[in-house]
Amino acid sequence: MNKIQMQTPLVEMDGDEMTRILWKMIKDELLTPYIDLKTEYYDLGLEHRNETSDQVTVDSANATMKYGVAVKCATITPNAARMDEYDLKEMWKSPNGTIRAMLDGTVFRAPIQVKGIDPCVKNWELPITLARHAYGDVYKNTEIKVPGKGTAELVFTAEDGTVTKETIHVFDGPGIIQGIHNTDKSITSFAKACFNYALDTKQDLWFATKDTISKKYDHNFKDIFQEIFDAEYKERFEKAGIEYFYTLIDDAVARVMKAKGGFIWACKNYDGDVMSDMVSSACGSLAMMTSVLVSPSGVYEYEAAHGTVQRHYYKHLKGEETSTNSVATIFAWTGALRKRGELDEIPVLVDFADKLEKATLGTIEEGKMTKDLALITSMENVTVLNSEGFIQAVKDKLEELLA
Ligand code: NAP
Ligand code: MG
Questions:
Q1: Mean pLDDT of residues grouped by 10 in the chain (403 residues)?
Q2: Counting ligands in written order, which one lies closest to the CA of residue 269?
Q3: Residue identifier of the C-alpha nearest atom 33 of ligand 1
Q4: CA-CA distance, 362 to 360, in Å (whole number)?
Q5: Nearest CA to ligand 1 atom 37
Q6: What is the pTM of this model?
Q7: What's the CA gap between 273 and 121, in Å, rounded?
Q8: Are 157 and 163 a contacting pair, CB within 8 Å?
Q9: 256 vs 253: CA distance, rounded Å
Q10: Count of beta carbons in the 10 Å neighbourhood of residue 215
Q11: Are 106 and 294 in contact (CB under 8 A)?
């Protein structure tokens, strides 16, 4: 068989632990036998990040900006325990955080829906894609625990020395205060990433904040979205037959529960954090979720939404069998290959990505799956496969589809 040829390399970011093992299996069994895989390889495994003083993460993000499409394996974000385990020079920052900051991106996550793994919300026929703003608000807060009586003030000193001051609260006893911020630049990037992704995937876009209560902070989000929509996207949305819809966050939550799905839900940072966990757990498993970081300049980085599955890796190291779900990692590759195929106009590459996804879902629909899914499926008499076995079953199905 002739292998599919690529033009531009994908930026390949390897990772850690169990997902690093799956990464190699997926490449060896499902990709390189069929594609003359062109990648520029960056090893973001923690050992190599430590050796390069994390320069490799920065290099991989720069390469992503150069080539436009990356695929990333899950990576360890070091904590105190990892400092000892890997004898680290420093507690390196989260690679995802570093890459996100450099690409100035928005993270889109959508459940991978398959027959037999039914969302608990019966009317969710189509996936709901969550778009999470990944900068500021409570994630970059400043807090004070107030010990007793006193006055809390919000003060802004402009470059020219002009001072704006507001009283937050006059305390007559102990309490708490918190300062948060965001920037028009970051909100603008967020809005553009959402509008572009809606056009790209031909789905309606919903956005919600608490602007009735937060008349300046949240209202600013609402205004920026509306201004950009009216100026740059309104006509393109009309042409694509999709809608932009703004509502209050409470109303959005209520509507989401009754909706059919098939739209993008843009959320401020905290709402996105919380709501994406709700949507993914309602759909079964973190391993059944796609995740893509999209920058306003149109750069894409595909990954799985879950971590490195440490507990399974330690079993693997002891020589014990694992049943780790590789679906999200397979879909990270298919997402990246499809995007590369679209950008370089290689229809056979797009077609291969479609078929690999179809083979993956088809395998599960035939009742062959990993343990995490076997525990929640509505199917009876399913076959529980180990990590290798599932990938082999997908390969068998893929060969059928390619024949
Ligand atoms: P995790 O790797 O997502 O795993 C948590 C648990 O979820 C697992 O123990 C497993 O449950 C289940 N699970 C997750 N993915 C699965 C899969 N593909 N197949 C089957 N079960 C799966 O989270 P963690 O253990 O908290 O984090 C481990 C490391 O990942 C940490 O060092 C963290 O920094 C890193 N992390 C990286 C990313 C990223 O790179 N995007 C994201 C999150 C966390 P059972 O044990 O019950 O089977
Ligand atoms: Mg969360």
A1: 94 98 98 98 98 98 97 95 95 89 86 89 93 88 95 98 97 97 94 93 97 97 98 97 97 96 95 87 85 88 94 97 97 98 97 98 97 92 97 98 94
A2: 2
A3: 76
A4: 5
A5: 307
A6: 0.89
A7: 19
A8: yes
A9: 5
A10: 10
A11: yes
